[in-house]
Structure formats: structure tokens, C-alpha cells
Amino acid sequence: MVRIGVLGCGRIGRVHADSVAVLRGAELARVYDPVEASAREVGERYRAAWTTDVDDVLADESLDGIVVASPTPTHVELLTRAVRAGKAVLCEKPIDLDIGRVDACRTQLGDLTDRVMVGFNRRFDPSFADIRERVAAGEVGALEQLVIISRDPAPPPPAYVATSGGLFRDMMIHDLDMARFFLGDVVAVTALGSNLISREIAQAGDIDGAVVTLRGAGGQLATITNSRRCAFGYDQRLEAFGASGMLIAGNQHPTSVRYSGAERTDAAPPIFEFFLDRYTPAYRAEMAAFVAMIETGTKHSPGFDDGRAALVLADAADRSLRTGTTISLG
Amino acid sequence: MVRIGVLGCGRIGRVHADSVAVLRGAELARVYDPVEASAREVGERYRAAWTTDVDDVLADESLDGIVVASPTPTHVELLTRAVRAGKAVLCEKPIDLDIGRVDACRTQLGDLTDRVMVGFNRRFDPSFADIRERVAAGEVGALEQLVIISRDPAPPPPAYVATSGGLFRDMMIHDLDMARFFLGDVVAVTALGSNLISREIAQAGDIDGAVVTLRGAGGQLATITNSRRCAFGYDQRLEAFGASGMLIAGNQHPTSVRYSGAERTDAAPPIFEFFLDRYTPAYRAEMAAFVAMIETGTKHSPGFDDGRAALVLADAADRSLRTGTTISLG
Amino acid sequence: MVRIGVLGCGRIGRVHADSVAVLRGAELARVYDPVEASAREVGERYRAAWTTDVDDVLADESLDGIVVASPTPTHVELLTRAVRAGKAVLCEKPIDLDIGRVDACRTQLGDLTDRVMVGFNRRFDPSFADIRERVAAGEVGALEQLVIISRDPAPPPPAYVATSGGLFRDMMIHDLDMARFFLGDVVAVTALGSNLISREIAQAGDIDGAVVTLRGAGGQLATITNSRRCAFGYDQRLEAFGASGMLIAGNQHPTSVRYSGAERTDAAPPIFEFFLDRYTPAYRAEMAAFVAMIETGTKHSPGFDDGRAALVLADAADRSLRTGTTISLG
Amino acid sequence: MVRIGVLGCGRIGRVHADSVAVLRGAELARVYDPVEASAREVGERYRAAWTTDVDDVLADESLDGIVVASPTPTHVELLTRAVRAGKAVLCEKPIDLDIGRVDACRTQLGDLTDRVMVGFNRRFDPSFADIRERVAAGEVGALEQLVIISRDPAPPPPAYVATSGGLFRDMMIHDLDMARFFLGDVVAVTALGSNLISREIAQAGDIDGAVVTLRGAGGQLATITNSRRCAFGYDQRLEAFGASGMLIAGNQHPTSVRYSGAERTDAAPPIFEFFLDRYTPAYRAEMAAFVAMIETGTKHSPGFDDGRAALVLADAADRSLRTGTTISLG
Predict the structure, then answer these.
(1) To 10 degrees, the CA torsion angle through B306, B311, B316, B320?
(2) Nearest to residue A91, comparing CAs of A76, A107, A111?
(3) Predicted confidence (pLDDT) per residue in B89-112, tens digit
(4) pLDDT (tens digit per residue) in C135-180
(5) How many angstroms away from the CA of A79 is the closest CA of chain C?
(6) ipTM higher than 0.85?
(7) Whether the predicted pLDDT of C313 surpasses 90
(8) Are the C-beta atoms of B126 and B288 separated by less than 8 Å?
(9) Alpha carbon distance D39, B11 (integer Å)
């Protein structure tokens, strides 16, 4: 039985606690949150020890793995301490908003970063993972073009935007990782942004829509289209086009019901509202992979360097947006 | 150039005239209708000779084929005269509402019935024809179950219903022929009817909805579901289920546009309103087949005996409805 | 916390144990199976007390509800004892294969049958339940036609068929209940059967394909198409057609991936293999409803009389098949 | 009856001749091609006068409109002569590959350019036109993002590529016009290209894949993804995303048949092979619009300036590709 501790009992911490709870072979042993009510609620729900002192978790020698689901500014410190305490770590994205801090952390930890898995949960989405495997198996021939469309249902609160690191580092980082998941190394980044949705976001100096184009080392082209608002829910699609075919992951509906009437036919219900519904299976599979890596002792994937690489792309997108030029990498 | 004459310039006669006009290798030479305005309008539109005297057409030695698109009670007489005048005939369904008259006609004409094609246009629908070919090619293995759903957008006028021969002979006869197209000989017929739509139809002694179940000689089962009203248009679907797979022909839309919004996603536009739109390609292909048969001298298909067999099934359905028993055939 | 005991730790018993385990507010307290290995395995997996003596469960005063998931011939006795012991009961379908025994049980239990819920899990399938609610809310106008297609991936073992009660009581009973779920009382039943798949099933005197047509008290028509074999998985579809529209529940796929290549486009992956995958959400929702009914003390639904009514329809289908006539009910 | 002459009897000239032939209210009066066999074949097929001397057509006073479907280098001269001869002109795209020649032509013709329609047939595609109308009607709220995917089935012959003007001017020009159709004025263009398909195209100095991003004057973002090869046919899709919803035009199939088997389900047939099949309805509607504009005397649309504007965008894309910067316009 793999024993897991969770640092942070907010929205995403609870997702991970839930994933551990339903996973055979894993046990939620300890949870931490500085807010006592949060720590207690999650602890009691899952019959796990709870604490408001993070050291209680880091010092627990019985734990095999630790999930870092605390606020972003605390990620580097907590993952460093956890890894040094001999734990495997699943760290929520991003590792940090500042590439300098990420690089410093990398230098300090050296090979210990092999014990860090970064929470790019979408790699574990059954549809995206299926396409990735089939592309790797040659089902569409050599990959030539990748189209990612990713839209949130509604913009976050202005206060969140201010500290989020901006659309590229906060939202698109998932899509940038997805592009790397398919393309491998990226050699060029071009970004365009727009402010069509939220005056508050514009005032905070951020954009609320964007298109980023990437070129892979193999010459492939990828586009990522983001929007902070989508009237019909959490729009998450991907299209992998290759020399001999194409695989598309469409949106998903809670039922398979279709309506036909005088005004329209075959109408599907709304898609999932947001990531907790859309990506529940992905979070479950991510936790299962984390636990399996602990059991087998293999290097974690997506790892620390994947977390770093996505941030490098987000930074490049930011630079491209500000300069109106394509940014070359590597 | 195959020269065609059309008898009857009503709705369906115009469809056939149109099909001849756009067909390379065929020429609309003469049209007849007892109503001068109708005959003239169609004749002038297609630059064909027009007449209100049917003998003008039947006596025209330059004609190769004649389309009988006049009212049902005149079919037997006109097809008989046309065939005896040496013409190939495309006769609209049904040959007649009375199986006795059909059988008498068959006896009189003997082998001349080989020159008669019956207007079961749906056999030429690109989707249904594709499924028929693929089933014949073994793509779904041995055929086991057939599901036909066929609904009209709105009930016909009461006056029409009174002389129509009833739902089975007027409307379902197309689906009964489609069942024979897939199953071959039918050995048992069971029918249920309903009156949920139109008081006038009930008062005329007819039903406005029905389910008929057929058993083919090979033991296959088929269901036909009919309704005289369908809020979302002309609902025309078919499902062929076999030992190793299934082929479905779904409804068709005038565009490939799909709408997503807060209330629904992927909503398609309404389907085609009625048979003139839905089956235009079928009517075109039917006329092309008729002309090709004239050119090659092959026996016409679907032929006179197919027209007769569908009527036999409609009569059996009627008997099943009245007796509450399965009717065995053959 | 509602405490549940499970009688029978075979395939379906484990499904229910699993549903209790993941349900907040319920606790799997005790499980029974005459085979020690089965009882122990399920008990240990869920940390529940386990036993090979059914009396241990029935005598446990702390239990609120009991799930009867034992072999069909034991259902009547166990549900009777459980209800008399003051428990709410979720009894797997069918209550019994013999309507005489069912009626005798009903007479004996009287109002106690209100404490019995029958395991027609499909009523809780999110797609079917959604259609049922929307039909009730008038979204398609008055319901006129219902089309149910239900095909198993592969025929059961011959030994199972011999004691199954036949296709109507074993397999179609779910669809007959679904028809009642939509139509309410059924007044006429007509059945056709086929033997196209399995020589063993034919030798056992059963059919392996069937079409049953039902008429509701309101004049609506329903068709149920069953097959014991389906090459592409567990084919489970439903179409509710009404005066102003239609709702269809299509098959469901494990991912939203679609493939396009030179031979085909938009190809979806195979559908779910069988009921444990397809109906997992339905089993979960069924258990949640059972627990909620225990908590609120409301009459259970679908109840004992629903279980009886579906069996009456299966018997009528059997009689129709043997006599070639429509069977009138009520 | 509007009388039309066609200059050029190659592939696209025949498409237009066909469109005139089936259009009520128009008549194909004269056709020209320098190759006698081509001119004669088209003339005889449609019973039109044919000639190898272009002056025969330009001097025919009975003609109301002229279709310029000759090779691109002859467009400017022929459209100029035709307009000056008092004819309305439908000129195939592009007007010319050289913006200098286009501008000179514009200066020379002045208001006479109002009589020129440019052959951006996709504006008349029923699906794209439907989305355009619904966007204009506010069905998705303010337009925010446009996604155009446009892939040819196979690269053109190397000899064609050499004189084609390059992917942007030859192929993407249709998509650039489509972007203008939705966005209006474009203020910024960013282009990326790839050479993954054809060595010959690379040797000719051209690209065989591209992504272009556009910003509209209203701040909207659009992406165009092009490929010179697509294994599954002529991939032509468009997605208009707005503040309150989205409209997508998917690919189109020749039938509505879907196959399900052990390996896959719901598989559609291949899409249309190339533009003559995919856009036949668009060409028909384009010709109808041209004839209607002649009859009503209204200014032609898409007009000369639309042809010019699309070329300006293609030139900007070329410059962006070479410089790695975003090109600002207007």
C-alpha cells in the first residue's frame, strides 16, 4: 500500500485526495492546510490524519509520496523539502512563475528532480493519451500539424489574474505542455493576443484571448487557440494531422442524448462545465501513474524538466507578444 | 439519345421531367396532362412537345420510354398501352391499389412486364443503395436485423387519404419494398396501427402511425416504423445489422453547420422537409437507370413483380392489423 | 450513515458492493456468499464483515438495507425474509421466473412490498433518465413511438441459457421495463423470434434474436429489438418520438477520439464491451436512489409491482411467439 | 434570359459552363478556348457557339456577362477588355499574382471595376454562407475567434507550382478572402511555413504547409491552417467563435452512411475528393449571384477590391514568412 500525503486542501488538493481515496493500492495518510477547517474537512472525509503544520507531513517517515497542491509561490520550497526527505513528489503546475527560481531549484536538486512529477494532468486524459499513443504507433503517419483549442468557461476573478503570471503561464501552459507531448522540442514560438472579453484583465495588463503558433524540431506546425470565456462550457479539443490521416479529440458530453425538433436536429447537451468534471478521469489516471512510478521506482513523467520547458515556452510567447516577432529557441 | 415521354404533369411528373432534362443522353420529347395549363407549363419549361391528348404520346413512334406519372387508377391502362406500343415504361408506385387488377394486368402482359420499371425511387438513394451493396459484399456478415424508420413531415389532406388505399398501400409500400430490397422474399407479416395524430384520418377509417414486423425467408427480422407526422421533417433512416457489423443511413442536412451555445452543443440544422428535397438524387439516379436499361435492353428493376410483391405485403399488413395475427406468406 | 448488507458476491453483487463503497453516506457493513473465497474477497476489499451464513446478515439489526444479488431461484425467499426483518431491499431482476411464485410472494407480503426496490438499473442510466425527464416535461410533446434497440455482445454459455427463463425473461425484461418506464401500462404485446446465431440456444428451445411490439394504454407504439450477439459491443439505444420532437440516446464511447484516413472518416472507437462498463453510472445512481429512499422512508421505485409487470410482459411475449397472435393485457 | 460567354474551357471554365447550363434564366451563348478541341467540346455539349478567337466573344453585343476562366496571366487584359465592352465580368481568382498590375488595372478602370465579380466561390458555399449570415444576425454574439482549416488532397504538379505564385497566392488566397468575409479589414498578418511533404515544392522555393494568423480591425484573431496534402480528401472546415456561442462547418460526405464493427463505430465514408465535388453547390450559387447582379444592376460582390485585398494579405504573409515578424496593415 503506497502512502500519500497531500499539502494543500483547496480545490485541486481535494481532487487529488479524492483520486487517492478511490485508487486501489494507495492510501491517503496525511493532509495539511494552514486553514484548520479545510485540513480537518478533507482529513475527516477520507479518514486521514490532518494538520495545520506542514512539518508534520514532511517528517512522516511512513509516507511514500507527497502531492504539492499549495499556492504556486510555495511550490519550489515544498517540493525541495519533500524530495530531500526522500519522498516522491507530484507537484501541481507551474513549478514557479519565474524561470530563474525554477533553474536554481534544478541546480540545487540535481538528479533528485527525477523524483518529481509535474501535474500536467491532460497528458493522462483518456482521449488525448489515446491520440498520443496512436500517433506514436504510426496510425496517422508522420505528424505534420497539431491544432489545440482550449477555452475556459469564464474568466477568473481579477484578483487571481493579478498574481497568475498571465494567460501564457497560467492557462496556456497546459496547452504548451500538450504541444511538447506531441512535438517534442519546440524551436520557434509566435504569439498574438487579444482583449475582447474583460476590461479588468486588460487593466491588469493581461490578455484574455490568444493564438500561439509553434514549430517543432521536426518542422511540424502547431497552433494553440485560447479564450478566457466560452459560452458553451469548457472547450477542450485537439487535432493531430499526419501524412496518412488525422485523429481528433472532440468535446465530451455528460450523456449521449440528442434532440431533434422543428428548429434543430441532433442537438447534444452542453459539454462539461469546467476542469473538475472534464478531467476527472485524467486526474484519476495521473494519480495512478504517480503511484505506479513510486512502486516501480521509475523516473517520473511528465517530470521537472517538462515543467520547466513549458514555462520556457510561456516566457517565449510573452516575448513574442511584446515584440511582434517569432522567438527562436534551442 | 433516348427519347422520353411523360404522362402526367403533376408534382411527381415534374420531378421526372426535371430528371430527364439534366440527364446526358436522354431527351424529354413529349409531355401529356389533361389540364392544358400543366401540360403547357412543363412542355415549355423543357422545350418539349406538349399535349392534352394521351394518344399523341402513345402513338409517337420516336419515343423509347414512357413515364407513367398520372393518377393511380390510370396506371394499369396506361402502362399496358405503352408497353404494347413497344415502349419501355417507368410506372409510378403503386401499380394499382387492387391486387386483383395487378394480377390481371400481369396475366395479360406476360413477358412484356419485363419492360416495366416500378418507381421505387428509394432503391436509388445513394445512402440506401450504398448499404445494400455493402451488405451484398459481406461487409456486415449475414444480415440478421433490419430497422426502417420512415416518417412524413405532415399528414396528407383528408381528401387524399380517402382514395389513397390507406397507410400501408400509400406510404409504407416504399418501406415494404425497401425491406424486400434487403431481405428478398418475406414469409410473415405482423402489423400494429395507431391513431394519435389526425381525427380526419381516423374518421376515414385509416391509421396515422404503424409498426410492421417482417420475417424474411432466411429468418431475418425487420421492423418498419411509420408516422404521418414528424415535427423535424422527413425522417428517413435505415439500419442493417449483421453477424459482424452494422450500417446505418442517418438523416441528411442541407449544410454541415453545427451550433454550440449555452443551451446545447453540436446542433445540426433541420433535415430535409420532404421527399422532393431528400430524394432528388434518388430520382436522378432512378431515371439514369431507366435510360441505361433502355439502352442495354436489360430487364427492368425494380420491375412489375416487385411492384406486385410490395402490394401483397401491404395487403398482408392490412389483414394482420384487422385480425391481430401474424400473416404467413409463400 | 446508512448501513448496507449484500447477499451474493458474484459479478453483480460486486457491482453493488462497489457502488456502496464509493457512495458518501452509505457503508458496506456485511456481505454474504456461500462460497467462502468469494465472501472473504469482497469483504476484505471493502473492509466489511463477511460470512457464509446468510442468517448472519439477516439477523444483523444494525443494517438498514439489504441487496439481494444471489441466484434468481433464491430471490423470493431472501427478499421475503429481509423485508420481514425490517430491512429495505434492493432485489436484482427478475424477482422470479415464475409469475405464480411472484404473485404468491406479493400476497404474503402485502404492503411490505413497498420496501422492495427491483434492480432495473437502466432507469438510472443518465441518458435514459434524462430522456424520461424531458419527455415528462413535454419537450417532445405527447409521446407517440418508442424504439428500443438492445443487443448483447455475445451469447451467454449454453448452461446459463438452460436456466435463464429464456430471452424474454432474462434479457428483454430490462427493455420491457424500459418500455413501461415510458409508456406506463401496456395493453398489447406481439413477439417475433429468430434463431440465427447459436445452435446451442436453439437446441435449448430458446431464441437468440427477437422483435417485440407493444401498445401502451394511450395508444403509443413501441418496438424492442434484441440480439444475443453484436460484433461492435453492447448496443444500447433508445428513441422517444413525440408530437413535437424526438430524443435519442446513442451508444457511448470510452473516448471522444475520431479517426479520419483514406478509407473512412470520423470513425469512433468501439463502444463499451458490456453492461459493467456501459451501466456503471446507472448502478451508482441506482444505489444512491436506494439509499436516499431508505433515508426518506419513501416507497421504493422501481418497486415490486414493476418487477412483476415486466415479467407479465415477458410471459405475454412468450405466448405471442408461440401462438402467432397479439396478446391483449389489462 | 441573361446571355453568358465563357473565356477558357479548361477545368474551371467547364465548371462555370455547367453552372450556366443548369441555371434557369441564363443561357450559355458563346465559349472560347485557344485549343480548338476544348472549345468545340464544351460548345457542343452545351449547344453554344464556340470559337478559338477571343475577339468573337468580346465583340458579341448580345452577351450580358463574361466569365474569365483563362490562365491567370491573361486575367487583367481580358477582364479589362470585357468590362470596356460593356459586359459584367466574373473573373477567376486571382486577378493577377502581381499587386502592381492589379493596382494599375484598378486605376485604369476606375468605377468600371464595379462590374467585376471575383471568383471567391467559397463565399457561396451553403455552409459557410449560412454561418456568415448567422454571425451577422448575432447568433454567436460578437465574433472573437475564427479557425479555418483548408487542406488539399494532393500537391499540384511541380510545373504548376513554379508559376502558381506560391502557396499564399495560389491556395491560401481563398482562405484569406474567407477571413475577410468574416472579419472585414485585417490589420496584422503573421505567417509560418513548412516543407514536410514535397521535395519538388521545396526545390521550387515554395512551402507545402502553413499557418497564418490574422488580426481583424475589431481585435478578433483568426488562424488559417493549410496543407498541400490530406490523406482523407479535401479538408475544408471553418469555426466561428463568439461571445455567446460557436458555429462550425464540418466536412461533407457523399452519403449519410455510418459503419460500426469490431474495430470501430460510426465510421463515415471518405469526404469529397476535391473542389469540383465539394464546391459544386458553391459554384452554382456563385453563378446565380452573378446573373442576379446583372439583372438588377447592383455592384458585384465579392468585387475587384476584394480580389485585390486578398492578394495584399497573401503578399503580407509572404513577407512575414521571410522576415519572422508580424506585418501590420492599414
Answers:
(1) 130
(2) A76
(3) 999 999 999 999 999 999 999 999
(4) 999 999 999 999 999 999 999 998 888 889 999 999 999 999 999 9
(5) 31
(6) yes
(7) yes
(8) no
(9) 38
**Within 10 Å of residue B32's Cβ, how many Cβ atoms?**
28
Grid coordinates of D205: 522555393
Q: How far apart are CA C67 and CA C276, in angstroms?
A: 17
Mean pLDDT of B172-192: 97
* Other CB atoms within 10 Å distance of the CB of residue A274: 12
- How many residues are recorded in chain D? 330
Chain D residues with beta carbon closer than 8 angstroms to that of B261: 140, 244-246
Task: Give residue for cell 478509407.
Answer: C263
Task: Assess whether pLDDT exceeds 90 at residue D59.
Answer: yes
Which class would CATH give B123-328?
alpha beta
Question: What are the cell numbers at B59?
Answer: 402513338
SS3 label, residue A76: helix
Residue C330 has pLDDT above 80, yes or no: no
pTM score:
0.96
Contacts of B106 (CB under 8 A, 6+ apart): B113, B304, B305, B308
Asked if the domains C2-118 and C123-328 are classified in one and the same CATH topology, the answer is no
Kindly state the average pLDDT of the residues C252-276.
91
From C25, which residue of chain A is nearest by alpha-carbon distance? A45
What CATH number was assigned to the domain covering residues D2-118? 3.40.50.720
Q: What's the grid cell of residue C303?
A: 418497486
Task: Report how far residue D236's alpha carbon sits from residue D248's, in angstroms, rounded to the nearest whole number.
Answer: 11
Give the residue from B1, B239, B256 with the most D CB atoms within 10 Å of its CB, the best one to mutate: B256
Q: Where are the domains of chain D?
A: 2-118, 123-328
pLDDT, one tens digit per residue, over D116-156 is 999 999 999 999 999 999 999 999 999 999 999 999 999 99
The three three-digit cell numbers of residue C176, written as one number? 420491457
C-alpha torsion A26→A30→A35→A36, nearest 10: 120
What pLDDT, on the 0 to 100 scale, is given for residue A318?
Answer: 97
In order, the DSSP letters of D169-180 are: HHTHHHHHHHHH
Does B259 sit within 8 Å of A231, measured CB to CB? Answer: no
- Report the amino acid identity of residue D289: A
D141 shares contact with chain A (CB less than 8 Å): yes
